[in-house]
């Protein structure tokens, strides 16, 4: 269904760009604010899309961050997780942007 329909590919990429951008911002904010409830909400929202795209790194880092919050990890450790997630999301966003441009 996805392949062979250029407009659907562009729409899929643009939806992914929005979702991963929002998630990355929410992840950073809620992790550093130690807000487990909102971190979980952000994670539950992105997990299906990440898994569908094979972006297991997102789910792995999110799970690691949740555990760090549960263990009351240092702010430095949380900041390292934010940096790791930012790198993962940036790579995904770059790929989605490139793919979207190819099909416009």
From TrEMBL:
Modified residues (Phosphohistidine): 44
InterPro entries listed in its UniProt record: HPT_dom_sf (IPR036641), Sig_transdc_His_kin_Hpt_dom (IPR008207)
Domain HPt: 5-104
Keywords on record: Dioxygenase, Oxidoreductase, Phosphoprotein
Example GO molecular function: dioxygenase activity
Name of the protein in question: Taurine dioxygenase
Lineage, broadest ranks: Bacteria, Pseudomonadati, Balneolota, Balneolia, Balneolales
